[in-house]
Amino acid sequence: MATTSDPAPPTTAPTDHRLSGKLGVGAIVFMVVAAAAPLTVVAGTVPIGIAAGNGPGYPATYLVSAIVLAFFAVGFTAMTRHVPNAGAFYSYIGVGLGRGWGLGSALVALVSYVTVQGAVYGYIGFALGGLVESYGGPSLPWWLWTFVVMAVTGVLGFRHIELSSKVLGVLLVAEVGIVLLLDAVVVGKGGTDEGLSSAFLNPTEVLSGAPGLGLMFAIAGFIGFEATAIFRDEARDPDRTIPRATYAALAIIGVFYTVSAWAVVSAWGDSAVVAEAAADPGNMLVVTAQNYLGTAAGDVMQVLFITSLFAAVLSFHNVLSRYFFSLGNTGVVPASFGRSHPTHSSPHVASLVTTVVGAVLMAASAIAGLDPVLEVFTWLAGIASVGIVGLMLLACVAVLVFFRRTGVDRRPWQTVVAPALGVLGLTAILVLLVQNLPLLMGGSTALGVGAGVLLLVALAAGFVLAKARPSAARDLVRATRADAAPQI
């Protein structure tokens, strides 16, 4: 991997369309935590992780994932002040490893966020249709509900980012609030007759069953927290806001998932939780809420599950549109994608493109007759999980190379130790994801291989583009601050 032959020129980025805003730490945290869809993870992923992974020891996998991602975050945030570009992953990778890697990472990021957005669109169409039917409404195709949600998302994405942040803030508080209430009641009652679970503290329990599968499901729940840097142009004092938002989002997500998964295990008991999770994973959290909070709470949980999915898809829409916007300003995609709205200061063209891409993907899924959960959600989420973890790994490597080459920051923990530990941890997780990709793709080896090939082709295409469009490639990595002073 030759990385030092193509350093980024130490010049400032060219003048282009810019987004604007005054987002603080709280607003950015709301958006990235909403993308992680906390209630969706606790209601959907936790039961599956318990049943297919390591049983009552499953909550520990969230703690392990948070620690590995914390190593990534240390280097990621250390590099933030040296790369004043809202391109996030691909800007960091391009500055550290060179133009080909940067362009390839940009394309992998597009594939990853297109697929994760599509995964949530499929799930919310199915879930919303089921909720309407349960209350006596009409039985309509899942894709019709998906397009209704897509229209609302497109309108919000077209407007100023602060409108989306307010909507996401309200939805996030509601979904997190009811889960925390359930957690508190379970803990207050001491769980079942067995008492509160201690399995996640027992190495034997944590390593029982299939811990690799457990870790695979756990890491998928963190997708989105790394997108803080994409809001750089709309942040207040980005050199401080972005690092603080990154650490805050990771801490909130990690603690919330660990505590909530532990509460679910405690609510059923170590001896019974695996059987319950395997029997009815989709309704496990609702039933738990009904048992501990009453029937009404179970109904509220079902509604908030829909809003959790909506919050996630809106967050992914905002992230993906800003990727298109940033790439439009570097010439990788049409320049019109990089235009900002004169009134809303939003990436309105990129937002429309994001909506169209999502509509085409969902229309193709509907025409193919794919199941919205077992196929659309599972397959697309599998692609996204591998892509995002792969980008995190490349970002860690880029941090190591960048600081070693430039010497602008000589703090060992931030520039060597933590990123190196991140490389080791993310490599192990990526290997697990690739090995189990056929499982994420519905058990099909052919689909699993195809998904991996798609991501590799996207990465390789970056090197082709770097040769074919050198000016765009130069703009992609032309972000390093010339005045960055070494830090001791």
TrEMBL record:
Origin: domain of life: Bacteria
Q: How does it sit in the membrane?
A: Multi-pass membrane protein
Localization terms from the record? Membrane
Q: Which residues form the signal peptide?
A: none
- List each copy of the Amino acid permease/ SLC12A domain by range: 29-440
Q: Which Pfam families match?
A: AA_permease
Q: Which UniProt keywords apply?
A: Membrane, Transmembrane, Transmembrane helix
- Kindly list the residue ranges recorded as spanning the membrane: 27-50, 62-80, 101-128, 140-158, 167-186, 206-225, 245-265, 300-320, 349-370, 376-403, 415-434, 446-466
- Protein name per Swiss-Prot or TrEMBL: APC family permease
